[in-house]
Amino acid sequence: MSAPPPKSYNLAIIGGGIAGCLLSIGLTARHIPHTLYESASQFGEIGAGVGFDAHKVRTMALIAPEVRDAFLRCSEPPSDENPVWFTVRVGDMRRAGSDGVVSIGGELGRKVLAGEPVFNVPSRPGPRGGVHRAHLLDELVKLIPAHVPKFQKKVVDVTEANDRSGDVVVSFADGSSARHAAVLGCDGIKSRTREIVLGKEEAKPVFSGKYAYRGLIPMVKAVQLEGVGKESKVGSQMYMGYHGHVLTFPIAKSSIFNVVAFSSKESWTNAEWVVANSREDMLADFDTWCPTVKAIISEMQTLDIWALFHHPVTRTFYQSTPKICLVGDAAHATTPHHGSGAGMCVEDSYILSELLAETDSAGDLEKAFRTYDEVRRPRTSELVRTSQEGGMLYDFEGPEGDDLEAIAHSMKERMGWIWDYDEGLAEDLERARSILRQV
Ligand SMILES: Cc1cc2nc3c(=O)[nH]c(=O)nc-3n(C[C@H](O)[C@H](O)[C@H](O)COP(=O)(O)OP(=O)(O)OC[C@H]3O[C@@H](n4cnc5c(N)ncnc54)[C@H](O)[C@@H]3O)c2cc1C
Questions:
Q1: Is residue 231 within 8 Å of residue 250, measured between CB atoms?
Q2: Which InterPro entries does UniProt cross-reference here (predicted)?
Q3: Cα distances (Å, whole numbers) of residue 145 to 29, 173, 213
C-alpha cells in the first residue's frame, strides 16, 4: 500500500513513558511527523510489574501489530481454560479465631479461612497479564525510529509563536527551544503540560488516601514462602483486609513474583511521593495479617513507601492557544486499583493516532484534539473515579463494608466495564470520526 500524502505539520510528544512511546509508534505507523522529547538521558521504567487485560492487548495491535508482538515477547502465554484475573482471599486476621476462620460480613464470610481462596474474578480470554515494565519499554523503544527521540530535554514551557503561524514554541530547561505545530503532553502525573493547560492549582494531583510498597521477589524464592508455592501456577492473588490489601502476580514470564502491598493514610504532607521507610514500620503495617502475607512482606527488599496520587476532576484534555493535547497520566492520572492506567494510555494512543491520521493540515489539529477530548475524557475520568472506589472496596472501606458477596459482585461489574470494551472503543472511534468529518 502506498504511503498517504505527507502531513503539513510536525508534532512534539513530551515524555517517553508508556503513553509517549505508544503514541510515537502510532504516529510513526501513520506517517505523522513528530519528535519525542524526554527529560531523562534515556528511556527508562522502574523495576516493577504492570498488567494489561486482553482488550488492551488487542488494542495494542490496533496501534500497530508490532506493539502487541512486543507485549507477547515479555509475557507468559495465558491459559484460557480458566481465565482468572485475581484469586481473592481475606489476608487480614484481625477477625480470625484461633482456628484461622475469619468472622466477616456476608454469607460467604462465614466460611472464610484466612489466606484461603474466597472467590475468583474471572478475566477475559486472550493474551494478557503481567510484564516487567522495563522489559516492555525496551521492546517498545525498538519500534521508535532513531531520529524521533531527543533526550535530556526537560520541557519548562510551551508558548504560541509570535508570528501568527499558530505554531507552538517548546522551551527546555537547557535554554534551547523547538518549534512545532502542536504539543502532545505525555509527561505523566506531575505533568508540566497539564499545568499549562489547566493552570498550576487545577493541575495539582491529589493524594488518594493510599500508599503502597512495591517489591520483586525471584520466583524460585517466592515459591518457597509459606502458602505461595502451591499456588505459583494459579497466577495472581489478592489478599483483602481492613484498610489495606496485597496483590501478587507473576511477571517476566513467571520468573519474578511482583508484589504491591497497599495501606491507608488520611493525608500526605511530605513533598516527596516516594520516601524511605524502615523494615519495622513496613512489617508493622501487616502484623495482623495471615502467615502467607507476612512471609511475602518480610521478603521485600525495597522498603520505600509510594504515596498514591491521582487527578480526579479534569475540565479538559486540550487547549487551542498554544495547541496542547494531554495523553495518558498527564490527562487522567489514576490510582492503580483497577490496574488500568497504562491500559488507558493504550486506548488514548490508538484513538488519537487514528484521528491525527485523518487530519491533514495544522489548522485542523484543534478539531482533532477537541474530538479526542470528547470521546476519551468521559471514560478515563470514570476510570479515575471507580479506581479510587476500588481501592476502598478491597480495603473494606466502601458501602459494601466487608460483605464478601457484595465485594465480589462490585469487583466483577467494575472490571467488566473496563475489559468488555472492544465494541465500545470501535464505536468511540466511529463517533469521533463522524465528529471530525463534520464541517
Ligand atoms: C503501584 C502502581 C501500579 C500500577 N499498575 C498498573 C497496572 O498493572 N496496569 C496498568 O494499566 N497501569 C498500572 N499503573 C498505572 C501506570 O503505571 C501509569 O498509568 C502509566 O505508567 C502512565 O504512563 P505515562 O507514560 O502516562 O506516564 P509516565 O510513565 O509517568 O511517563 C512520563 C514520562 O515523561 C517524562 N517527563 C516528565 N516531565 C517531563 C518534562 N517536563 N519534559 C520532558 N519529559 C518529561 C518522564 O521522565 C517520563 O518518562 C500502576 C501505577 C502504580 C503507581
A1: no
A2: FAD-bd, FAD/NAD-bd_sf, FAD_monoxygenase
A3: 11, 25, 36
Helix (H) or strand (E) holding 247: strand 244-251
Instruction: Determine the distance separating the centroid of ligand 1 and the alpha carbon of 5, expressed in angstroms.
Output: 33
Task: Tell whether ipTM is more than 0.90.
Answer: yes
* Rounded Cα distance, 410 and 159, in Å: 45
Domains of the chain: 11-75+129-204+311-437 (3.50.50.60), 84-128+206-310 (3.30.9)
* Burial (Cβ within 10 Å: 0-12, 13-18, ≥19) of residue 75: buried
Q: Is 304 exposed, middle or buried (0-12, 13-18, 19+ CB in 10 A)?
A: middle
d(CA 388, CA 411): 12
> Is-contact 436 282, C-beta < 8 A?
no
The secondary structure of residue 77, as a DSSP letter, is P
Q: What is the pLDDT of residues 35-94, one digit of tens each?
A: 999 999 999 988 889 999 999 999 999 999 999 999 999 998 877 766 888 999 999 999
Look up residue 316 and give its amino acid: T
pLDDT tens for each residue of 322-351: 999 999 999 999 999 999 999 999 999 999
Is residue 30 among the annotated active site residues? no
CA of 188 to the centre of ligand 1 (A): 5
Strand duo 155-160 + 168-172: pairing: antiparallel
Which contacts of 2-9 are long-range, i.e. CB under 8 A and separated by 24 or more positions? 3/31, 4/30, 4/31, 4/357, 5/360, 6/31, 6/33, 7/31, 7/32, 7/33, 7/359, 7/360, 7/361, 8/360, 8/361, 8/362, 9/33, 9/180, 9/181, 9/182, 9/361, 9/362, 9/365
Helix (H, G, I), strand (E, B) or coil at 67: helix
Measure the CA angle with vertex 432, ends 426 and 434; round to 5°. 105
Ligand 1 shell residues, CB under 6 Å: 14-20, 37-40, 50-51, 154-155, 186-189, 192, 212, 214, 260, 328-330, 336, 339-343, 345
pLDDT tens for 199-223 read: 999 999 999 999 999 999 999 999 9
Give the phi and the psi of residue 351 in degrees, each rounded to 5. -60, -45
Residue with cell 495544522: 362
Distance of CA 198 from the midpoint of ligand 1 (Å)? 19
262: three-class secondary structure by DSSP: strand
Q: How far apart are CA 128 and CA 131, in angstroms?
A: 9
> What does each C-alpha distance from 399 to 389, 393, 406 come to in angstroms?
10, 8, 9
